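Appendix B. Chain record.
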Amino acid sequence: MIRIVVDDIYSLRSFRWEDKARLVAFANNEKVARNLRDGFPHPYTDETAEQWLDTAIEHLSNSVFVIAQNDLLIGGIGYHPRDDVYRYSAEIGYWLGEPYWGQDIVTRCVGKLVGWIFTNTECLRLFAGVFSNNPASVRVLEKNGFRLEGRLRQAVVKQGVVLDELRHALLREEWLTRKIN
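Structure tokens predicted for this chain:
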């Protein structure tokens, strides 16, 4: 089990079966789902949570984590390593229960996860794709040193709306320079 301490209250930790009720409670929210890929469905049911927990616990325990407040789930965060010629890159993603929005929790959690990834893996480049109608997520990335690499025009269709995707990235060498300064 991995645990990454963010501060005295928040941490990132591996998923557990005991997280199911809180996962459904926070994930079953249209406002959360509208900024995520369709693989994060709405409604988010008990069955959806069971399928996710089975995958997260059995196969992804080193790359997807609970955002925890006093060890209780309030969101999720993770990274997905790429393969082949992209093997030193990984995509980062995150979500947070609506009651916790606007408190810079995700900003701090992304910062800790980025540090953990660049310290514990061979990853050289982290990237994230953000829907163009989600400025809060853009701010999270920018506060952590991610830079806009491009706008993928009309790249996303979410809930019947065609959106651009904003692609942000952070290189290990940029993170090391930031960390030193």
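Further analysis of this model is presented in Appendix C.
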